[in-house]
Design goal:
Oligomer: heterodimer
Shape of chain A: globular
Order of helices and strands of chain A: HEEHEEHEEEHEEHEEEHEHHEEEEEE
Helix content of chain B: 10-25%
Radius of gyration of chain A: 21 Å
CATH class of one domain in chain A: Alpha Beta
Order of helices and strands of chain B: EEEHEEEEEHHEH
Largest sheet of chain B: 6 strands, antiparallel
Radius of gyration of chain B: 14 Å
Strand order of the largest sheet of chain A: 10-11-12-9-3-13
CATH architecture of chain B: Beta Barrel
Strand content of chain B: 25-35%
Structural class of chain A: alpha+beta
Number of helices of chain B: 4
CATH superfamily of chain B: RNA polymerase II/Efflux pump adaptor protein, barrel-sandwich hybrid domain
Shape of chain B: globular
Largest interface: A-B, 21 and 16 residues
CATH topology of chain B: OB fold (Dihydrolipoamide Acetyltransferase, E2P)
Structural class of chain B: alpha+beta
């Protein structure tokens, strides 16, 4: 509870956090709201109603020019040639050794123009990495500071947002988007049906200066549907129940996308070469030695990032990457990077919590899937 | 919730202490502490009959987001723990000064109570910390 004197970066909506009673903490150098009311309330609001997140700290990197598509396709593991304009794709960006630089969303804005949405903590790393591989006829710009991002999530997200626009939001399919949409009189560069919660919802990218006006309009429009302002705490429990990886936990420079269980975003057979391909193909052929699995504690306790995992025989077999008390399931759940010999569903394992080994079991994940 | 805090003593680790017998106290965490922690979902307290020492850790309290140590504000023997909290740890958020109590302790040194803060001192202590 002691305060630090380090200057934190403040996102554009920071002044509103205080007005709305957020508890602000240090998230990787950013002053971000961990919750507004309570993590549990916010979590349940998104599962059953609607919640609004400010995720303007996320980074945006614009790639454009004659060879933009082939350039991006070389950097990422998924196949961006499969994208139509106004479609987005989840992908990893890998090092040549298969470790992960970042997991990102690629938006195809035009034939040779892409927006890459990257994790806040990785903005400079990613941008520098991308510049290393720059080609003629490709321009890469870090526009993170001029773009704000709001996420409206939950089964009532569309209904609330639709009140503010004449644009028919039901035309936007999952991982599709629309550009230059007028919402509440504010021009929104991108409205995509995407999110990080396991629920239906939209992510809105717009000019930083317009973010406050839009936020206020959405709060007003959502009032009768019980819209809750949500912080990063609920975002984390929501994404964990939906088994969406978090960079720095399930993914890192030492964890490949195959080990993290996002093999669906690695297209070994795409036409172009890509960074990490050789290692990833080999890993796929020979089989991975460890993988991210879902776990549930059967004994008392809550698994947390960094806790060691043991076999019933007492061998150390891996580590917890994320864990919490699931607000939806009311169980202690987590993700763990385990030796693959122990990765089968129903394998009994132990998690070490404060020098005690607590019984746990490997379970199917996602823990939660929307109906 | 209005609670009369005038009978309570507070530690710098945000525990409260209430005298419940000649040599016995009840211990919990303050309203300020529960607000700082957020939704409490798990509590691990010392076993009955174990000995605890003032300002040393006696258990763990976990919110959705974080794990925090639970410090004993006094020295003595645990004579009772609030087992209700195993199933309803949220009681600490909802009612930190009554139903959300944590443990009862038989004091080994009653003079320790003198070093704890009264309500007024504690409120001043919190305000200092905030600035």
């Amino acid at each position: 509870m002691s305060g630090s004197r380090i200057t934190l970066r403040k996102p554009p909506l920071f002044p509103l956090y205080e007005v709305y009673g957020a508890k602000v903490i240090d998230f990787g150098g950013w002053a971000l709201p961990v919750h507004f009311s309570s993590i549990l309330e916010e979590h349940h609001a998104v599962r059953t109603g609607v919640g609004l997140f400010d995720v303007s700290h996320m980074g945006e990197i614009l790639v454009e020019g004659r060879d933009a598509e082939s350039y991006v396709n070389y950097l990422v593991t998924n196949d961006v040639t499969k994208l139509n304009v106004d479609q987005a794709q989840y992908t990893a960006m890998c090092y040549p050794d298969g470790g992960t630089v970042d997991d990102i969303l690629v938006y195809k804005l035009e034939k040779e123009k892409f927006l890459l949405v990257v994790n806040a903590a990785n903005i400079n790393k990613d941008f520098n990495w991308m510049k290393l591989y720059i080609e003629d006829h490709v321009k890469v710009t870090n526009i993170s500071d001029s773009i704000a991002q709001l996420a409206i999530q939950g089964p009532k997200a569309e209904r609330v947002l639709q009140k503010l626009t004449h644009f028919n939001l039901s035309n936007i399919r999952y991982f599709g988007f629309a550009q230059q949409v007028n919402i509440a009189g504010v021009n929104i560069a991108i409205v995509s049906r995407t999110g990080y919660t396991g629920e239906d919802g939209f992510e809105l990218y717009l000019d930083t200066e317009k973010a406050e006006a839009l936020w206020l309009k959405i709060v007003e429009a959502g009032a009768e549907d019980g819209l809750k302002l949500c912080g990063l705490g609920a975002r984390d429990t929501l994404r964990l129940e939906a088994r969406l990886p978090l960079y720095g936990q399930e993914l890192s420079n030492r964890i490949t996308p195959l080990e993290a269980g996002i093999g669906f975003a690695v297209k070994m057979n795409k036409e172009s070469d890509f960074l990490g391909k050789e290692v990833l193909i080999k890993q796929k052929k020979q089989g991975i030695h460890r993988k991210i699995v879902g776990i549930e504690l059967t004994g008392r306790g809550i698994p947390r990032h960094g806790y060691k995992v043991f076999s019933q025989d007492g061998d150390e077999i891996g580590v917890v990457t994320s864990g919490t008390q699931s607000p939806t399931l009311k169980k202690s759940i987590g993700l763990a990077l385990l030796d693959k010999d122990y990765s089968e569903i129903e394998t009994r394992i132990k998690v070490e919590i404060r020098n005690k080994k607590i019984e746990a079991i490997v379970v199917k994940s996602p823990f939660y899937k929307k109906v | 919730m209005t609670v009369d805090l005038s009978n309570l003593r507070f530690s710098q680790e945000h525990e409260w202490v209430l005298k419940i017998g000649e040599n016995q106290v009840r211990v919990g965490i303050s309203d300020y502490a529960q607000k700082q922690l957020g939704d409490i979902v798990f509590i691990e307290y010392p076993e009955v009959d174990t000995h605890v020492r003032a300002n040393e850790t006696m258990g763990t309290i976990e919110s959705v987001k974080a794990v925090s140590e639970l410090y004993s504000p006094v020295s003595g023997k645990i004579i009772s723990v609030n087992t209700e909290l195993e199933d309803t740890p949220e009681m600490i958020n909802e009612n930190p000064y009554k139903l959300g109590w944590l443990v009862d302790v038989e004091l080994s040194n009653i003079d320790e109570l003198e070093s704890l803060m009264n309500e007024e001192e504690y409120l001043a202590f919190i305000n200092e910390g905030v600035e």
